[in-house]
Amino acid sequence: MDAHSRGRADEIDPADQWVLNPQTGNYELRLDHSAGQSPSGTTGSSTRPPARSTAPAEAPVPGQRRRRPAEPEAPEAAPGTSGSSGGGRRVPSQSRRKRKQGASRKKKVLLWTGGTMAFVLVGGAVGAYALYNRLNGNLDVVEVVGKNKSAGFRKGEAFNIVLIGTDKRTGAGNAGYGDKNSPGHADTTILFHVSKDRSNATAVSIPRDLKTNIPECQVKDGDQIKTIPAEADVRFNVSLGQNGRDPGCVMRTVEELTGVEVDHFMMADFNAVKEMTTAVGGVKVCVEKPVDDPKSHLKLPAGESVVQGEQALAFVRTRHSFGNESDLDRIKVQQQFLSSMIRQMKSDDTLTDPGKLFDLADAATKALTVDSGIGSLTKLQDLAGELAGIDTKNIAFATLPVVDNPAEKVKATVVPHPTKAPQLFAMLQSDTSLTEVKKKEQAAKSAQAKAQAALLEGERAPSAEVRVDVYNGSGIQGAAQSTINWLQNEQGVLRSTNKSNAPEKAAKTTLEYAPNQADQARALADMMGLPATALKQGTADAAEREPMTLVLGSDFKGAGVPITGPAKAPKDLGEVAADKQVCAK
């Protein structure tokens, strides 16, 4: 019987047969469970030397700290393990059979890490002291001023992580990438939202050339705290590195832009893509036509290919071979790559290969800089447990909706779409998944239909005949104007007028109308998702051109977002589900 067959004896998981011998530093294949581990490691031993970088050290990205020191104590041993006089761990075969279920569960756990265009999903348990300390010591940790440095994540609540890819030229072979002598920028930024029930996740890419406001932020400077002043109307990518900004400044910029609280960040550089794709044996990609890009040096035939290392980095950096050669089209390619990488991480080829899992965990932790709230292997494993149940079909990638910057004659930057961006932000704020939104919309319509049937039954006026004055009683600046923009541009209600602020703040949104305006009220209620309780009919008929009165209340979530029920997904987001293979165009 060969080693592979023996590994499956007695219903024992093959991955559990590999044990680290701390005396030799080798992984040893345990074939005889009744015998102790050989202290010399000469029987059934296999060494998997870790990859070591020989590149000289470079100045860190602002906010980046030294590797965290090895922890003085090992993690608590798993149930059923016991020490041996030879220094290794002797585990009876009965104990191993009992642990099979636990090992299988841990294989399903996703240790999510993020960085330059890469997520990493790693399964497997870290039981040995030396292995734990090695991986834990790989992490770079930054304390974000103003954030709870001891907090992991909010159990039972939705949470958000900003994934940052910096273009700083760190690592071997990266001297030709990014900006020379630059402290780096937020070259790739993804807001990763995990739902409260842990059933789905939404990853929203934020274009680097987005014009936005960067708020004041504070950074650690040795033992001192330094305040970085705010900047208005600048590119999003300068929220990192420039003027001494650290990843915490990116977090605050994303919060101000989206209205979503950001709990943590994960950051990596160019090496993340190269090392992690190599660790898993490559990632499958697809292109519709042959690619020969002299700038990124990417060469691929039409159809599917497997890329890793430098070729994988070239794929995610390529801009001139896809779409209209813009950064927005490159984002689409990056999202397709990430989807494929997630599928590879969760494949049996990765999850059942102990050596590949170790290489991946080693590469991932070396590539990462994280905030102190998740700044240890134990905290990352806890986080991974929260993500274990998310199916790839329920991981949706989307790009922040934008339009060309109207202030520029030569279009070089973009700004948030005036109606679609607030809709997407409202979805994140209300914990509404892009992958499930249609189902929720249908359920909400069904539930509301009975309550509104009597009041809303009847004819609807055409959009062009709807007249309405909009007052802002929501307390949200610009709510009335954004609603007018949406009504006129998206719904065709051209006879709508912004009447500025309401006399006082309103708790609920209301629509006041006359009996002879009922058809207009029904039409507007359909467009805005107004509940029956929001409609207030008067007693006297209105004059021929008299408008209805719409007062936006505190329940207003954004232009085009229904007042009740789940948010509607904006049209043409171009979202990609992580379980789908898409060819780059």
Q: What is the topology?
A:
Layout: H1 3-7, E1 18-21, E2 26-29, E3 45-46, H2 93-108, E4 113-115, E5 118-120, H3 129-138, E6 140-142, E7 159-166, E8 186-194, E9 201-206, E10 211-214, E11 217-221, E12 224-228, E13 231-235, H4 247-258, E14 264-268, H5 271-279, E15 283-287, E16 291-293, E17 298-300, E18 303-307, H6 309-317, H7 327-345, H8 348-351, H9 354-367, E19 369-371, H10 377-387, E20 395-399, E21 402-404, E22 414-416, H11 420-429, H12 437-456, E23 467-472, H13 479-490, E24 495-501, E25 510-513, H14 518-528, E26 535-537, E27 548-552, E28 576-577
Parallel strand pairs: 6-19, 7-14, 9-20, 23-24, 23-27, 25-26
Antiparallel strand pairs: 1-2, 2-3, 4-5, 7-8, 8-9, 10-13, 11-12, 14-19, 15-18, 16-17, 20-28, 21-22, 25-27
Helix pairs in contact: 3-9, 5-6, 5-9
By DSSP (H or I, 4+ residues per run), the number of helices equals: 14
Compute the average pLDDT.
75
Give, in spatial order, the strands making up the sheet with the most strands.
6-19-14-7-8-9-20-28
What are the low-pLDDT stretches, counting only 5+ consecutive residues below 50? 1-19, 26-61, 70-128
Helix and strand content put the structural class at alpha+beta
